Amino acid sequence: MLTRFSALPVVLLSVLALAACDPAGPVEQTPDQAAAVPTPYLTPQTTVTAGGLQEREPDTCGAVNYVSVLGQPAAQIQTLGITKPMRIVEWRGVEDQVYNPQRVVFRLDSRGNVYNIDCG
Question: Which residues does UniProt assign to the signal peptide (predicted)?
Answer without folding.
Answer: 1-19
